[in-house]
Amino acid sequence: MRVASVPTAHPYVRSLHHPQVLRLPDPPVPGAVDGRWWPSPWLDAGYVRAHAGTFDVLHVHFGFDDRGPAQLRALVAALRGADRPLVLTVHDLRNPHHTDPAPHTASLDVLVPAAAAVVTLTPGAAGRIRERWGRDALVLAHPAVVGPGWAHAPRPRHDGFVVGLHAKSHRTNADPVGVARALAATAPAGVTVRVDAHDDGRGRAVATALRDEPRLDLRVHPPFDDDAFHTYLQELDVSVLPYRWGTHSGWLEACHDLGTTALVPDVGHFREQAPCLTYRLAGDGPDRASLAAAVALAHRTRPAWRADPAVRERARAEVAGAHAALYREVVAGVSR
User: Fold this and answer.
1) Same structural domain for residues 76 and 52?
2) 35: pLDDT strictly greater than 80
3) Which structural domain range is residue 286 located in?
4) For residue 308, what are the CA distances in angstroms to 142, 156, 252?
5) Distance, CA of 321 to CA of 312 (rounded, Å)
6) What is the dihedral of CA 204, 32, 6, 18, to 10 degrees?
């Protein structure tokens, strides 16, 4: 079964490897720069028509941000003309990079009804899909995102209790400054609040805005590679997700794999993915009382919610097998 994925080079997609599935590599994009996102040629109707003989299923996950409804309708028409089914995984009900949710919703208004099968990660997201589009999405839990070496690696011992927030390059849906200030104002004595940011313009802007907060351990550096990222997470007792909106989180899954307690806002469906603590969002930022209570609870109880690697691997194999079965169904003309 030849599957063209949008994209292929993503940890979630790589985790779906299965002996009955040949997942095609991402097509090269002329002029593309390594390490930057570029639209996949598989989203172009002309490319699909020209390469229809090379794939059996198109599976869209992420990366259609730059495509409007008219372009997506053309893609759907090209797939139908080539008799190639579309599978759509709804990772995001709301795009984390868009302040206005309307463009992403308009794209889903095209893709969800047109897909031969719709997949999502949590029952709550499936409920939202059913309410808006009348489609029953297949719920397949997010697989592990760290490899077996890190999944089995013992957590290093460290003194004190560290709560971390990573601003990265300050994604649109994140409020790193507001959440960091709330943590600095409310964290119990003896708790270190560490804030990391990338050494680009947006990351440095976060660090500059927080430089007068004496409670914060501020660190600005290049983006982590996978090993450095996993090391970073294991240096934390709690990792705070500073999101203002969202649906699902691979970061939360990494915390679960590595044994770091995730503290997430009460938006989207993060809480359905894995054990975690939550804080409320107020109209102007994080609710400080609930954020402080969650940090204090973690400091007092030290939750041990690390995933069992054997259980996670069995679940990964089951999810990969479910995808392989789904591809066989849609190629045979069975819609879900």
Assistant:
1) yes
2) no
3) 148-301
4) 15, 17, 15
5) 14
6) -100
Rounded Cα distance between 120 and 89, Å, is 5
Q: Could you tell me the pLDDT band of residue 159, with boundaries at 50, 70 and 90? A: confident
Q: Which amino acid is at 65?
A: D
Q: Are residues 136 and 195 in the same domain?
A: no
Cβ(180)–Cβ(210) below 8 Å: yes
CB 17 within 8 A of CB 23: yes
Q: How many domains does the chain have?
A: 2
Residue linked to tokens 């691997």: 313
Amino acid identity at 151: A
pLDDT in tens, 199-226: 999 999 999 999 999 999 999 999 999 9
What the block records as the tokens of 207 is 């660090």
Structural contact between residues 229 and 166, judged by C-beta atoms closer than 8 angstroms? no
Residue 308 lies in a domain: no
| CA terminus-to-terminus distance, the chain | 18
Which of 61-65, 135-139, 162-166 is the least confident region? 61-65
Go through the chain and tell me how many residues it has. Answer: 336
What are the two backbone dihedrals, phi and then psi, of residue 269, each rounded to the nearest 5 degrees? -130, 30
Please, which pLDDT band fits residue 37 given cuts at 50, 70 and 90?
low
Task: Examine the domain organization and report whether 44 and 90 are in the same domain.
Answer: yes
Secondary structure class of 291 (helix, strand, coil): helix
